[in-house]
Amino acid sequence: MVELDAKKFGVKEIAFDKTHSLGQLTYLYGFHFISIIAIVVIMVYGFTPIYAVFWATVITFALSFIRKDTAFIPKD
């Protein structure tokens, strides 16, 4: 469906940098996957989905500060 929409609206191919492998990208930006894992783990413990998503968001926000370039802070 995405490809059909792209053709319909005339979207052109965008070149992107392929310098990092999947493993390197996971190492660098893996904290984004923590939110999905946190949701599953919190729900397995019997909490509601809303509670799980709230705490997964808080956890991801906190873990983003591990690296300065991925921190969720306003830019100047």
Please give a structural write-up.
The protein has 4 helices and no strands. The model has no long low-confidence stretch (mean pLDDT 86). The longest helix has 15 residues, at 49-63. With 76 residues, it is an all-alpha fold. The protein is extended and about 45 Å long. It has helices at residues 2-9, 22-29, 31-44, 49-63. Helix 3 packs antiparallel against helix 4 (49-63).
For this entry, give a set of tags:
single chain; about 0% strand; about 80 residues; extended; mainly alpha
Described by the principal axes of the CA atoms, the overall outline is: extended
Query: Low-confidence parts lasting 5 or more residues at pLDDT below 50?
Result: none
**What is the CA-atom radius of gyration, in angstroms?**
17 Å
Q: Sketch the topology as an H/E string, one letter per element.
A: HHHH
Describe the main β-sheet briefly.
none
State the helix count: 4
User: What class would the helix/strand composition place it in?
Assistant: mainly alpha
Distance between the termini: 38 Å
Number of strands: 0
What is the helix content? 55-70%
User: Hey, roughly how much beta strand do the residues contain?
Assistant: under 5%
Mean pLDDT: 86
Any chance you could write out the topology, listing elements then pairs?
Elements: H1 2-9, H2 22-29, H3 31-44, H4 49-63
